[in-house]
Every structure is written in structure tokens, then in C-alpha cells.
């Protein structure tokens, strides 16, 4: 009897964790559909992971409009500060000087939540109307409000000078 109760509790915890994980479903319980995939490369030739762009309906006229989710699954260790430094670098490249300075403190605060990761870890950025969340392995790390913040932050991957042009093209299916 005790064994059966423990198993029931474990199953309940597992199901609860899946369905309450950040970005699993939307407010109206629509599941995410993977619309596009791309390799994530370091130094343009070393594959370090895979990125996916997901939406509730992939036929949207603009894949970057909310709700939208970017997931990055990594195949190797990457230090958290590497994410933070790269993000700030590409934000500065993709924003006007005035916009970068306006959001710089918020970008740094958001980037402070990146952690060291290893093989199999998944970072997820979920853009919903008026908010952007960062999660690691379905554990919420950070939330920022504002469509301007979210759109600016996503320029790391979708701006004029993105982290990777092939990644941008693959995810936006261009």
C-alpha cells in the first residue's frame, strides 16, 4: 500500500511538473508546435547545440510575433558568463546607441540569470505579449516585462547582425 501511494505521488508530481513548466502551454492551453530547427554553431563550424522556434500555429505571417518560443538544447558544457557576454555584445551590435543605453541595465540583469550548462541542458526564451521569460530545463530563471524589451532582446538572433545568419535564416525559414 505504501509503495502504491509513493508511485501515485511520483506520477502526480511528474505530470504536474510537465504541465506547469514555463512555456509548455499558453494561457488557453494551446500546445507549442516546433516550426523550425537549426544547428547552433560556435566559431561558425563547431556544432554546440540545436535551436528550435515554436509557436501555437506555425502558419503565422510573422514568426517573431508573440506568442513565440526559442529553445536551445546544448551538446556540451558552456559557462553562464559566456551567454551573458555574447548576448550583450550582439545587443549592442543590433540596437541604436540610444536604445542600447536605455535597456543596458535591464539586459545585464536578465543576463545575470544565465548559468553554466552541460550536455542535454535546454535554455528556453518564451515571448508572450508584454513579457519575455528565460528558463533552464523548465525552471524559470527570469522574467522581464514589455514588448520593446522582448523584441530588442530577440535581435540577438533576429537582428541585422545576428549571432548566426544561417541560424536566423533557418529559424525564420528564409
UniProtKB/TrEMBL annotation:
Transmembrane segments: none annotated. This is Chalcone isomerase domain-containing protein. SUPFAM superfamilies: Chalcone isomerase (SSF54626). It comes from Alcanivorax borkumensis (strain ATCC 700651 / DSM 11573 / NCIMB 13689 / SK2). InterPro entries: Chalcone_isomerase, Chalcone_isomerase_sf. Keywords: Signal. GO terms for molecular function: intramolecular lyase activity. Residues 64-172 form the Chalcone isomerase domain. Residues 1-20 form the signal peptide.
Amino acid at each position: 500500500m505504501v509503495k502504491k501511494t509513493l508511485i501515485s505521488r511520483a506520477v502526480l508530481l511528474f505530470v504536474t511538473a510537465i504541465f506547469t513548466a514555463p512555456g509548455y502551454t499558453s494561457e488557453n492551453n494551446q500546445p507549442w508546435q516546433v516550426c523550425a530547427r537549426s544547428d547552433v554553431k560556435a566559431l561558425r563550424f563547431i556544432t554546440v547545440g540545436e535551436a528550435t522556434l515554436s509557436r501555437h500555429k506555425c502558419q503565422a505571417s510573422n514568426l517573431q510575433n508573440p506568442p513565440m518560443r526559442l529553445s536551445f538544447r546544448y551538446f556540451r558544457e558552456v559557462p553562464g558568463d559566456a551567454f551573458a557576454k555574447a548576448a550583450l555584445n550582439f545587443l549592442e551590435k543590433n540596437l541604436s546607441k540610444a536604445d542600447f543605453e536605455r535597456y543596458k541595465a535591464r539586459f545585464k540583469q536578465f543576463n545575470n540569470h544565465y548559468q553554466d550548462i552541460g550536455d542535454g541542458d535546454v535554455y528556453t526564451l518564451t515571448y508572450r505579449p508584454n513579457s519575455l521569460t528565460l528558463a533552464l530545463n523548465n525552471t524559470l530563471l527570469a522574467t522581464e516585462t514589455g514588448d520593446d524589451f522582448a523584441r530588442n532582446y530577440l535581435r540577438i538572433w533576429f537582428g541585422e547582425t545576428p549571432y548566426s545568419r544561417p541560424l536566423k535564416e533557418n529559424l525564420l525559414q528564409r
